[in-house]
Amino acid sequence: MHPVQERTIEVQTSRGIRLALGAVAAAFVLSAAAGCNYMIMAGYLLGGPPSIDPDFDRETGHCMTDEGVTVAVVCYAPTELRYDYSRIDRDLARYVASRMHLHQIKVVSPDQIAAWLDEHPKWETPAEIGEATGASYVVYLELADYGLYEKNSVKLFRGRAEVLVSVWHMNEDGTGEAIYSRDLSSIYPLHMPRSTYETKYTTFKREFLERLSEEIGRLFYEHYHGDDIPDAA
What domain count does the chain have? Predict the structure, then answer.
């Protein structure tokens, strides 16, 4: 290589190193002046957003993604809610089971559970469902409130739900015990309602069930900071 070319490469390399070091120094200065936003952004670029462990795992020491674990999802809705939303109990259980399946949790078929519930209308505890299906855990969802409209309005959509989420751990003898419980409140959209002229009823119902089932599912599988941002509006 010609000496002039070698010198040019050395100068360019040295300049590149200085620019890189300058960028790093600037990042530290900016982070000191404006908080940690720039450093957080650097972390996102290098390793992705920070993850959040499932609340169920932290609280119980159990994990639903363990090998050999099977989960049954059951929902109960009082008569007054089913009067306005006739299949809300079956729909929510199905959506949650689908979410869990997508996150590597093995679930009992919702159809199998629905058939058992139809055959045993006088069932009393989630443990009965766990024993009948051979599940390791039963996720029991008890709906206290559910609606798709902004209160006192029929022209604005705004999903709302109050759910008691509990988990029953099944023993080898077919008995079960409650090991986890969380109250969950959900509102969608977060910031303002949506006009019924802009969105079809069936579309909004699906969107809210997807959102609600995701919030419930996060109790049992890993998720990430910032997951709420796309669903804010």
Answer: 2
